[in-house]
TrEMBL record:
Keywords: Amino-acid biosynthesis, Aromatic amino acid biosynthesis, ATP-binding, Cytoplasm, Kinase, Magnesium, Metal-binding, Nucleotide-binding, Transferase. InterPro entries: P-loop_NTPase, Shikimate/glucono_kinase, Shikimate_kinase/TSH1, Shikimate_kinase_CS. It catalyses: shikimate + ATP = 3-phosphoshikimate + ADP + H(+). Monomer. One of its GO terms (cellular component) is cytosol. It is found in: Cytoplasm. Binds 1 Mg(2+) ion per subunit. This is Shikimate kinase. ATP binds at residues 21-26, 126. It is an enzyme of class 2 (transferase). Its cofactor is Mg(2+). PROSITE patterns: SHIKIMATE_KINASE.
Amino acid sequence: MTKNNANLLQGLNIYLVGMMGVGKTSVGKAVAEQLSYRFLDTDDLITKIQGQPITEIFSQQGETYFRELETKVLEELSTYTRSVIATGGGIILKPENWSFLQQGLVVWLNAGVDLLMERLAQDESRPLLQTANPRETLERLLEERYSQYAQADLQINIHADESPSAIASRMIQEIPTVVKSQNSAS
Ligand SMILES: Nc1ncnc2c1ncn2[C@@H]1O[C@H](COP(=O)(O)OP(=O)(O)OP(=O)(O)O)[C@@H](O)[C@H]1O
Ligand SMILES: O=C(O)C1=C[C@@H](O)[C@@H](O)[C@H](O)C1
Ligand SMILES: [Mg+2]
């Protein structure tokens, strides 16, 4: 089943989008393993290229600079094939980024704010959440971004107590439904 689905994708990249903390990195690694794809993470690459953690890029160079780097990294990765690409939570904000995302299969990992809060409670590496009321910030960001995330080809709802590997299997099982409808649309 997994091998067939990898064939069905014909090398098409999978782009994971969704709010910070939903599990794009964790689930992405499991999807890549199950499809024998390469795993890449835009946040990780930005950190390596810049030689600075994301919090520092935000505080020293600013969010606009980070977003420019993010677009450059995404453009570079769009030339790859057979890759699962975990993206930063805000990648869907720039229309320009969609021209790269749409070259692959875009999968939205969606979870409610309660689960996101649980996952991010002890985490200080998300600069946008260093506010007086992180829950309120998450709620606002999710509301602002919801319609953009919903442009994804496939939506996977994330619940507590499901491992990254089980979520990956569930996602891979759904691939034929979206790849088929993409083919029939063309
Ligand atoms: N299915 C899961 N079950 C339990 N814990 C999980 C699961 N998925 C992710 N986590 C944990 O939640 C936290 C956030 O996960 P992860 O870093 O994968 O999210 P992300 O979507 O990549 O976030 P960001 O957009 O900030 O990069 C991590 O501590 C991770 O170990
Ligand atoms: O949701 C966001 O805007 C972000 C999420 C993270 O993945 C990082 O890309 C950065 O912290 C910004
Ligand atoms: Mg991540």
